[in-house]
Specification:
Length: 171
């Protein structure tokens, strides 16, 4: 798939088949995250990949909207430092957002669906992922082959019209 097609095909997928993700594909997706630009090349992230069914089911309990994690083929936990200043946290969250999108676009390029989740229970996430005390799990990205339909560029999108969103030169 070409980049533009991957961008147009990417959608939140929360229902997956039982088909596993090939190790090479998973590594390619992780490499996309690793290569993501960050502020001052800071790279404030680590990625924990979870593929075991029991571990995925447990991880799905860290947030009320994370049920899809339990049925994913793999989930990537985006981990960062528990920053002390709001400025550092804001910069890290922006960088993690960029890594999230890189991961999701790379997955879409391979025909693999993705769905993100927040993490509400940091203590539980820290225990399940065996994180050091100074780390937090900011986001989870579930990956798997879509159960409903394969990824393809969307023709009908639920987005505000281009002309309403884009302002040229001024508001």
């Amino acid at each position: 798939m070409q980049t533009w097609d991957a961008i147009r095909a990417r959608r939140n997928v929360r229902s997956y088949t039982d088909q596993p993700i090939e190790a090479e594909q998973l590594d390619q997706i992780l490499e996309a995250g690793r290569r993501t630009p960050s502020s001052r090349n800071w790279q404030p992230w680590d990625f924990v990949v979870v593929t075991g069914r029991k571990e995925l089911e447990d991880l799905a309990t860290v947030w009320q909207g994370a049920g899809h994690i339990a049925t994913s083929a793999a989930t990537i936990a985006l981990v960062t430092t528990a920053f002390e200043t709001p400025r550092e946290l804001a910069i890290a969250q922006y960088d993690l957002g960029q890594a999230t999108m890189s991961i999701m676009i790379a997955a879409a390029d391979l025909g693999i669906g993705s769905g993100h989740s927040a993490v509400g229970d940091q203590d539980l996430a820290r225990r399940l992922l065996h994180l050091p005390a100074d780390r937090i799990c900011s986001y989870l990205i579930a990956l798997g082959h879509p159960a409903d339909r394969p990824l393809a560029p969307l023709t009908k999108i639920n987005r505000r019209p281009f002309e309403e969103v884009v302002h040229r030169g001024h508001w």
